Amino acid sequence: MAYTKESLVKELIGMGIKDRKVLDAVGKTKRELFIPRGYMEEAYANYPLYIGHGQTISQPYTVAFMIELLELKKGLKVLEVGAGSGYNAAVMSTIVGKEGKITATEIIPELAETAAKNLEKASIKNVAVVEADGSRGYAKEAPYDRIIVTAAAPELKQEWIEQLKGTGILVFPLGEQHTGQAMIKIRKKGSELIGENHGSFMFVPLRTDKNK
Ligand code: SAH
Description:
Bound molecules: S-adenosyl-L-homocysteine
Number of strands: 9
Order of helices and strands: HHEEHEHEHEEHEEE
């Protein structure tokens, strides 16, 4: 079977993704620009692909599910922890538009460089890739309307909460690598935090500068 952007969007609808903005953004983003050359036939298959350095570009369903939870809209300022290939940032960039901005941190220097190159190939201008340990957030650009973490975090990092605006949303997979993780959405309402569990997922681990 030939995988296409259209077949992928159909599959995501079948799996329960409803936010039209998310579906349109997936339908517009050229995933083939974010994967290694050998996988071109599988660019729109609904599974993760190896991107080198022991890392993967997430399954499109996971990307769409997390972005739907983020409640993105035009003009928002977003922090991503774990830029990887840059694909997730690319999908988000379409929704926040040119009034918005994505700062995508990546701890592996080579991947940070690849993500930046991939985004440039896709002519995406509202994403800045920074080589940094996002387990501490990225204070320079804070505060953020939204924070999305695409690597498994064994605990909630205080910096993420601190760097979120008073009405912000954080989405991250909570748990160790070997146990799998729970997809957690935290909505900040002033000093209050409201958390929800959105089911089980599998991510590569969040690293810190110490165990890099
Ligand atoms: N969002 C990516 C896929 C994420 S894979 C995409 O769309 O392709 C997880 C990524 O998180 C890996 O590239 C890994 O190197 C990175 N990572 C792990 N720990 C990190 C940290 N502390 N800070 C920033 N990036 C980190």
